[in-house]
Design a protein that fits this description.
Chain lengths: ~300, ~170, ~425
């Protein structure tokens, strides 16, 4: 695999391989010295056109634990804002000798557009409302770890909230259904894309309907600007209809899992503290983030096409 | 080598390890993923049968992420490191099936450092097939087998087989 | 005295029929149509169609203001290569074409290039800001009879009503870019399943259709003449069809790209496919073609919109909409339009000439004492776009790698060949 830009590009077997490879990385992260020389001499550049300290740190930690050199290009303060084109930025950093770009951008499609200007591998760390594939792999790994099953056959996963503007939702819908889960989207129609009839999902506008039957409840973050855009009348009303309340937690199955990609809006989609939920995996999501990103970096830069062969 | 030969070699190596270390005090066995792990377990079982005073621990080490030839030798998915004990001060016997260039052992010695600082590291192999590329010498050998560089050597509990890779081309 | 030019061996297509004959031209006028004619310059037209030069109702020539993308000269040359002898220049220049000074400048630059008639259109509102009317009477006196704020639709219904009333008094045509802006904020592509997958804000069909509907009703109460630019949806065609059935003075155009390309192309993340209005579905394409066949849509216009490469290299949401059209229009329409050749030339030539009110000089029959604005094209030649060879200053053509059918061989503007054997003559 040369790039990781969408779950589609990864494919079903690619997803399974990364999940297995992540087990190796999880073990490394549990060692007294969690560092291996696997990517010594490789350079990973983070190109973040949109602030996301969490995702950037997760990638950089992953790269360092594999002994890769890292290079951070903080674009919000750089010359791109002064009219330097994306092409020039990518070409310049390529000339410095990098093996991979980790790209986050507010615009859809950037990880594909920059391919023509660099030979390096491209990892999509989020493009607009389109894709965020490593987050989806993290979420699959976290569910797999919690349920001890590699296949999600028959599992009922409910994604709640602002599907329309969510790259996490788009990647997760693909990944969850690839692994066999049944996915239900819960949101007001204003927070759903205009037409999802071709997606492998059920749609429900009432969270309370699906609470008792969900194995996984995946809460999405609601940006406060959705109010001014007329998607929801008030945060209070949204929170009442679609937030996770103590009352709703009480109606969850005993084994049900609660997840959130972070950062959380306390008092909006999460009216409770995650630690109040018996099976909250929110902290595991963060911890697994580093392991999954190590696996992705190693897959792209380390073993190349040989992944999955015999030693 | 037949299955019986393999079994005898394992028993002999177990005895040699005890003898060389004057007992099993502070001893730990670590097999290399994947070929070395079953041998490490067999040797450990043998040692623990001979010396029942303490139990020698056995672990498994995946060296693929420590290799200097990544891209040539892939990661074997599922063959994960499992060393549930501290190696600091221990005498660690690394166990592998076939000793060839020595690169796997070099990677293993580096990988061990992540788990503490052993007092000493020794090397046991079922087969030494020659063609070393690094200054590495085994402490315990099941059998020395002369091979061609491109031969394929497989070692299981059923026996050891050499397949000449250039045979079909002739 | 200019040299005599003879077009030899072609098939002439006029409004009223076809004939095989040579055509002799002297002093900007067709002087003879007949067999075995001789002249100073003889243009081989065997296997070719000889017809009236094309008229584009919708060309962005970018001068003044964005000469990096196109100039009136390079746009004129692209037009000539595409078989055009007249281009209506869109007014979204910088400064915009809302004053006589800018109108005169554009017309003069067109004359200086001398490759086609450049017909400046005027703005409906001052600065295309949609707030106050442009000095339409002054502009009309300066010869403008086609007004539009293209790039934007006039959002304010009351202002649009006044504009139509005012236009009726002047006897000029208003052309609307139909887009209700509140419904297309941030939109990059058509609202469809593909835009759902990509997570891009959608440009819904209703944003076009609402304004088409509004303006039809405004024409009904004002009686002004109205032209709809680049219609893209099936329902828009239905609305215009019904309006015409009611006898309203309405005309409409579609672009070659809305007849040949679909919205799913945006999934390549290539901003060359970003255009306004956006590419639509196959169902819409089918409806647009039916509209062309039944006369609901009167003209094919390019919406030729050059952009410099660095602008199109921006992200999908930031890149400006628009694609080149002048040099490929005929080849695209013949390859993808499912139309007969005589319909194609009507849609590219005399219909738009009538709408632009330049049918005294363009869209004329190939006949004795008619002005010699002529296009000669090979209707069967297959070809593909070579970006290196485009006359346009920009390269944002979506047709690279697509086989087009039908290519202009010679173009004659005011009796002088501007293109011979596919080569621009100046």
């Amino acid at each position: 695999m040369k790039h990781l830009r969408s779950i589609d590009e990864l494919g079903h077997s690619g997803l399974l391989e990364i999940l297995q490879l992540t087990d190796h990385m999880t073990e490394i992260n549990q060692r007294p010295v969690p560092k291996v020389p696997a990517l010594r001499g490789r350079t990973v550049a983070s190109l973040f056109f949109e602030d996301s300290t969490r995702t950037r740190l997760s990638f950089e930690t992953a790269a360092k634990r594999l002994s890769a050199d890292t290079l951070t290009f903080n674009v919000s303060t750089s010359s791109v804002n002064k009219g330097e084109s994306l092409r020039d930025t990518v070409a310049t950093i390529t000339d410095m000798g990098v093996d991979a770009f980790v790209v986050r951008h507010k615009s859809v499609g950037i990880p594909w557009q920059i391919e023509q200007w660099t030979k390096a591998s491209i990892i999509n760390a989020g493009d607009g409302a389109h894709q965020h594939p490593t987050q989806a792999i993290v979420d699959c790994y976290t569910i797999r770890e919690a349920t001890h099953t590699a296949r999600f056959d028959g599992m009922q996963i409910t994604i709640v909230g602002d599907i329309k503007h969510s790259r996490v939702a788009r990647s997760n819908i693909q990944a969850f259904s690839m692994l066999g889960a049944k996915v239900t989207l819960v949101a007001p129609p204003t927070l759903l894309p205009p037409d999802v009839s071709h997606w492998p999902v059920e749609v429900n506008h009432h969270l309370d309907d699906v609470i008792p039957t969900s194995d996984v409840l995946y809460m999405l973050r609601l940006q406060s600007e959705r109010m001014s855009q007329g998607h929801v009348p008030t945060l209070r009303e949204y929170s009442e209809q679609y937030g996770l309340t103590q009352k709703r937690v009480a109606r969850l199955r005993d084994s049900a899992i609660v997840m959130h990609p972070g950062p959380m809006n306390r008092g909006v989609e999460m009216q409770i503290d995650p630690s109040d939920v018996k099976n909250s995996l929110i902290h595991r999501q963060v911890a697994n983030g580093v392991s999954v990103r190590m696996a992705v970096l190693f897959d792209l830069l380390g073993s190349g096409a040989n992944l999955g062969g015999q030693a | 080598m037949s299955a019986t030969d393999v079994r005898r070699a394992i028993v002999r190596i177990a005895h040699e390890i005890i003898e060389r270390n004057h007992g099993i005090e502070g001893l730990a066995i670590v097999g290399l993923q994947r070929g070395g792990t079953w041998i490490a377990e067999a040797i450990t079982k043998q040692i623990n049968e001979i010396e029942s005073s303490v139990t020698v621990p056995v672990g498994a080490l995946d060296v693929s992420l420590h290799r200097d030839d990544i891209g040539i030798r892939p990661v074997s998915l599922g063959a994960i490191t499992d060393i549930p004990f501290d190696l600091t001060g221990a005498t660690v016997v690394l166990v592998d099936d076939v000793l060839f260039t020595g690169r796997t052992v070099r990677a293993a010695m580096e990988g061990l450092n992540n788990f503490g600082r052993p007092r000493a590291v020794q090397l046991a192999v079922l087969i030494d097939r020659g063609h070393r590329e690094l200054p590495i010498r085994p402490d315990f050998v099941g059998k020395n087998l002369p091979t061609q560089k491109d031969d394929d050597v497989s070692a299981t509990s059923d026996g050891v087989r050499i397949t000449a890779m250039n045979a079909s081309g002739k | 005295m200019s040299k005599t030019v003879v077009i030899k061996g072609g098939k002439i297509i006029n409004h009223d029929g076809e004939l095989r004959a040579d055509v002799r031209i002297e002093n900007e006028i067709v002087v003879e149509v007949g067999a075995n004619l001789k002249g100073d310059v003889e243009l081989d037209a065997s296997g070719c169609i000889v017809t009236s030069g094309f008229v584009d109702l919708h060309a962005h020539l970018r001068e003044p203001g964005k000469e990096e993308a196109e100039t009136i000269e390079t746009g004129s040359r692209a037009g000539a290569l595409g078989g055009y002898t007249a281009l209506v220049a869109m007014p979204n220049t910088d400064p915009p074409q809302d004053s006589v000074a800018v109108i005169d400048f554009v017309r003069e630059q067109g004359k200086r290039a001398g490759l086609v008639d450049v017909i400046p259109s005027g703005c409906i509102t001052l600065g295309r800001q949609g707030e106050t009317l442009a000095p339409m009477a002054e502009l009309a006196q300066a010869g403008v009879n086609f007004f539009t704020d293209d790039g934007f639709g006039v959002q304010d219904a009351s202002l649009m009503r006044r504009a139509l009333e005012y236009a009726r008094g002047l006897g000029v045509t208003l052309a609307q870019h139909c887009e209700v802006a509140e419904l297309t904020k941030g939109a990059v592509m058509s609202e469809c399943q593909c835009c759902t997958d990509l997570g891009l804000p959608g440009w819904p069909a209703i944003a076009e259709e609402l304004m088409v509907f509004r303006d039809i009703e405004l024409v009904r109460i004002t009686g002004a003449t109205m032209h709809f630019l680049h219609l893209s949806t099936a329902r828009s065609v239905d609305l215009v069809r019904a309006a015409k059935r009611d006898g309203l003075p309405i005309t409409a155009e579609v672009t070659p790209h809305h007849l040949s390309l679909t919205q799913e192309l945006l999934a390549s993340y290539d901003s060359v496919y970003k255009v306004n209005p956006p590419l639509r579905s196959n169902d819409d394409i089918r409806a647009l073609k039916i509209g062309l066949l039944d006369g609901t849509i009167d003209a094919i216009a390019t919406d030729h919109a050059p952009h410099p490469r660095r602008d199109k290299e921006m992200s999908l949401d930031m890149a400006p909409p628009g694609m080149l059209g002048l040099e490929t229009a005929l080849g695209v329409v013949l390859a993808f339009g499912d139309l007969e050749i005589k319909d194609v030339v009507a849609l590219l030539s005399w219909n738009p000439a009538r709408i632009a009110k330049i049918d005294n000089a363009h869209g004329r029959p190939i006949a004795v004492s008619e002005p010699a604005n002529i296009c000669i094209f090979d209707p069967e030649l297959s070809w593909s776009v070579d970006l290196q060879r485009l006359a346009s200053k920009s390269i944002n053509s979506p047709y690279v790698g697509r086989t087009l059918r039908g290519k202009v061989r010679h173009t004659i503007f005011r009796g002088t060949p501007t293109v011979i054997d596919g080569q621009a003559q100046k």
